[in-house]
Amino acid sequence: MYYSKLILVIFLSTIFTACGNKEAKTKETSKKSEVQALEFQNKGHELVYKMTQETGSYQDLLNLKDIVFSYTYRTPDQKEDVSIESYIFNGELSHGSYLKHERTLPNLKGKMQQGYNGKHFWLKMDGQEITDSSAIESVTFTRKTNFYWFAMMQKLLDPGINYEYLGQDTIEDKLYDIVKITFNTADDTASDTYQLFINPETHLVDQFLFTVVSKNITDPILMRVKYENVEGILLTTYRKYTKSNWEADVLKDAWIEEITKDIKFNQNLDKDLFNN
Questions:
Q1: How much of the chain exceeds pLDDT 70, in percent?
Q2: Where residue 5 falls among pLDDT bands split at 50, 70, 90?
Q3: Other residues' Cβ atoms within 10 Å of the Cβ of residue 170
Q4: How far does the chain reach from its first CA to its final CA, in angstroms?
Q5: Rounded to whole angstroms, how far apart are CA atoms 103 and 112?
Q6: What's the pLDDT at 21?
Q7: Rg (CA), the chain
Q8: Mean pLDDT of the chain
Q9: pLDDT per residue over 108-158, tens digit each?
């Protein structure tokens, strides 16, 4: 009797082990097939893909549906914007409710709210809509920029991006793979250029250079980032940037800081929040 039970245990153990191995192999095969199905433009494209395997992809953000967090933007003179940011990832809907706005539209007094509902950008001060074109232009830039900086690493596989592998270089005793990023535009107007410094050990972007063509900034700015894992997504919850050159040398030791805290995904946000 004991011998029969022992045989049965060994038999079931063998089956479970085989099933476990089969499941693991299936997942591994599926992942390999996914990579093989992708057609990389070049090594730079592949390195960015590997990076999103560490940070999570934009699809992973879509699966989490929405987010609310506290955001601080601080300049070297210690002036700040402090806002509660709310986003719905499907459609990139964006809303900011400001506790302080010493850098964004500081001439407007009162409680500021600004948003994007998927079609229109809008601004309210103490509940009253502001339609001044220069103010709306500022809101458009801020809403787009805040969302992009938050989700940048996950969005680096968006359609319409060009990748160029520039080789390796050592920055402050660290070796990096360097990938140049440019963006296709509908009317071939000038767009921003990014230069990513990817750590070959972690596969993460530790720092990057960028331009802001819409603000006539074509000399590079250096952004350095730190990550935090929130529900399996690596987010750049601390960012700082300053003037640089294309060799990533710091030209001015005066940093603008961006700090993200109190992150809460999947808050079942009502779309009415994003409408004016």
A1: 86
A2: very low
A3: 8
A4: 76
A5: 12
A6: 52
A7: 23
A8: 89
A9: 999 999 999 999 999 999 999 999 999 999 999 999 999 999 999 999 999
275's tokens: 């409408």
Taking residue 101's Cβ as centre, other Cβ atoms within 10 Å add up to 24
Q: Quote the tokens at residue 77.
A: 């003179």
CA distance 259 to 42: 34
Bridge partners of residue 71, in order along the sequence: 83, 260
Instruction: Give the per-residue pLDDT at 187.
Output: 75
Supply φ then ψ for residue 49, to 5 degrees: -60, -45
- Domain 43-274: assigned CATH number: 2.50.20.10
pTM for the whole structure: 0.86
Phi, psi of 121 (to 5 degrees): -100, 140
Dist. CA 237–CA 57, nearest whole Å: 16
Q: Is the pLDDT of residue 6 over 70?
A: no
What share of residues in the chain are helix, strand, coil (percent, to 5)?
Answer: 30, 40, 30
Closest to 220 measured CA to CA, from 249, 256, 197: 249
Residue 28 in this model has a pLDDT that exceeds 60: no
Residue pair 72/103 in contact (Cβ under 8 Å)? The answer is no
Q: Please state the domain extents for the chain.
A: 43-274
Distance CA 69, CA 25 (A): 39
Q: Tell the burial category of 122 from Cβ atoms under 10 Å away from its Cβ (0-12, 13-18, 19+).
A: buried
Strands (E), the chain: 66-74, 80-88, 93-101, 112-116, 121-125, 128-130, 161-171, 174-183, 193-198, 205-212, 217-230, 233-243, 256-265
CA distance 120 to 149: 20
Q: How many residues does the chain have?
A: 276
